[in-house]
Specification:
Blueprint: E1 4-8, H1 15-26, E2 29-32, H2 34-45, H3 50-55, H4 70-79, H5 83-97, E3 103-107, H6 110-114, E4 120-125, H7 128-141, H8 148-164, E5 177-180, H9 186-200
Parallel strand pairs: 1-3, 1-4, 2-3, 4-5
Length: 203
């Protein structure tokens, strides 16, 4: 069976956590497409040509713990505005989406650009303040020296870049179910996502 779940949303809204939980619940494969851009960003920081980095990306490049640093995140959002790089990564994502046994992809443009025909689309969001607070605590727990004000500024800056870029801007697909996690527990958000995907399965 081919069944694609597209989950989009801004940074730190909880889409990664929800996507992993949905994939685990249904036994589907999961792809965090943001990691593709982070992996390219990491290669660029290491001196690689952006286009070459995108064209030679390997699944093992996504298993690097260093991809979660703020520096790599910043590099990722810069390479993500490059239309040629996005195009080079589209095939990787689309072939993953139609694998037999079901697939969950999360990112910024899955339901609108990568998989517009996805059977289930979710848009996971939360207020910038709420998302910045989550990211700040996450970075603090990793021992990183950051300020709450700086993290909020980064979140707002990232949202602006993602929603205003010319190619594949972050937006809600017309047929997507919106889940605002600002006042939800992780369990409530996951339950809402699973219930929606369940409702889209062929009966």
């Amino acid at each position: 069976m081919i069944f694609t779940v597209a989950i989009d949303g801004p940074a730190a809204a909880g889409k990664g956590t929800i996507s992993k939980a949905v994939a685990a619940y249904f036994g589907y494969a999961h792809l965090d497409t943001g990691l593709l851009y982070r992996a390219v960003g990491a290669k660029v920081l290491a001196g690689a040509d952006p286009m070459h980095a995108a064209q030679t990306l390997d699944p093992t490049d996504l298993e690097n713990d260093a991809l979660r640093t703020p520096e790599v995140a910043h590099a990722a959002s810069q390479v993500a505005v490059n239309a040629e790089i996005r195009s080079a990564l589209v095939d990787f994502q689309r072939s993953f989406a139609v694998r037999t046994g079901g697939a969950v992809l999360d990112g910024r443009d899955i339901g609108t650009v990568i998989c517009p025909e996805a059977q289930a689309k979710l848009f996971v969001t939360a207020s910038p303040e709420c998302r910045a607070d989550r990211r700040f605590k996450e970075l603090q727990a990793k021992g990183m020296d950051v300020s709450a004000a700086q993290v909020l500024a980064d979140v707002i800056d990232r949202d602006k870049r993602d929603s205003e870029r010319a190619t594949a801007p972050l937006r809600v697909a017309p047929d997507a179910q919106v889940i605002d996690t600002s006042d939800l527990t992780i369990e409530q958000a996951v339950a809402a996502a699973i219930a929606f995907v369940q409702s889209r399965l062929p009966h």
